Amino acid sequence: MRYFESKTPLVKVSAIGGALIKWETYDGEVGWYSTDDANAIKTLDQCIERKVGGLIRVGTQEEYEAFLGKAKGRPVFRRERETIGPEGLVAPPTLSLAAPPPSASPVVAVAEGNVAPQSGKPVEDPPKPVLRSRGRRAPEA
What is the three-class DSSP state of 70? Predict the structure, then answer.
């Protein structure tokens, strides 16, 4: 029996032969998979070696049992899904709350006479686009 831990259990991994590896998770952040299937073991070892399929590592039986002890009695993690209600289609929030804008430190400048205060950066014109012809070139005469 081999034990694997994934820090990205929502990433889907298919084993050789097409079987889907379903990570056991209760929080959606850490998942465990135990198996004695040679194809699944070979697939997960290749994912670790190639660094694909998310953050996967080989775990121990003690770590797996500790995870099961933590998960005992907790509800099964379910990803939020879209629902249809009286207000129409309601999708789960996919973006985190907006971060507050960075605090801009005001530039203090003393104007002498009729001279306007200047900011630190000069205004530059954007670069001109380069137009390229598409398609075949006309035959040379």
Answer: helix
